Amino acid sequence: MRIFSRSGAYRIVEGDAAQGRLSHAYLLVCPDGRNLRAFLKELACLILGADRRARDLIGREMFADCLVLPAQGEKFTVADARRVTEESYIRPVEGEKKLFVLDGVQDMNASAQNKLLKVLEEPPASACFLLGSLNDFAVLPTVRSRAKKLELYRFPEKEIARELEAEYPHCRNAAEIAAVSGGVWGRAQLLAEEGGAAKAAEEAARFAAELTVTSAVTAARRYTDREKASAFLAVMRLVYRDILMVRLGREDLLLTRGQEELLSRAAARYSPAALVRAQDKIAETERGLKFNANPSAAMETLFIGILEVR
User: What are the residue boundaries of the structural domains of the chain, listed by start?
Assistant: First the structure.
């Protein structure tokens, strides 16, 4: 994946491999739920020094010396942790290292994480570990302290726009999608596939223009998925910023285009100070979601809060 190969996380592991000082354990923290597993497998290829054949097998999760857990769509359990511990003492088949790729650490319960501690602290000589989590708050400090942390919270907008133009030749508004994506590649992909940033911006602008207590409660119930809630918040942040620009008479500074009528309707409902406070509340909600706040409850609190400051 080209965009990931330009990330700081990738370059760190690439440098460690080139200098022969790979860590026995890495923790990749990245909010991109759509691509985290793929990113981990790219790092696995670096750690194992994979050739073309091995890269293909790692991508399909069929390489003998690379165990990817849990199964796609499942959560890592204590039984999985026990399996990792037992298999870490089995010698690698094809090379000098046996790599355990553990996806979705943010969903591991404390028992499963604690079960991994001993093998992470005192691993067999040939075993190494690559953990991936959407955030680091759900990862036990004892687990975090035993792995080298790699952070990938966002890509630059220009990189996302360039990659969108390459992957989605039909995409006409790559720069706008990149701005709305919040720097998350998976979110940008979703916007490109579902009609682009214009559709997302229209939804958020209409929501702001027509927000009521009833619509706030109803809308919040749609956001049971953390990723969808985060994606809508990223769009809301830009839209409320543009509503403020309209309120101040600075339409020349708009980042979202084609929604001027809805933005004007919304601007008539808020004072400039209220719009600034609304953006603060959006940022606060984004932070809450990173700390595993309940998405629906967090969104309802936000929407009602925006009405209250209006």
Answer: 2-151, 195-309
